[in-house]
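1st attempt posting a full record on here, be nice pls
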Amino acid sequence: MKELVMTILTAGVQLAVMAALGYAINFINAKIGTENTKKYYNLAKTVVTAIEQQIGPGKGPDKKSEAIAVIKELTKNKLSDEEINVLIEAAVKEMNLVLKQQKLEQ
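the predicted structure (as tokens):
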């Protein structure tokens, strides 16, 4: 019974996070434009991947702080902390999905 409740709660939290990220990406698109959003998102994916390779698994807060600093520097502070946070979270989510998919295929 506990496992069923935990599974339901986990699924609920995942849905809430996905909805929040979707809303946040739409908000950023409206604020900075679709073309710039794609450019900044690709930058965030590159930064997140590089930091993951450099630091390795674990140490999430340290990696996030490093990613925020690098993105701020590369964008010359054109993005707010909230926008950078959303881009990083989306990039991490995508990276985790790709890694999970690769593990399933092996």
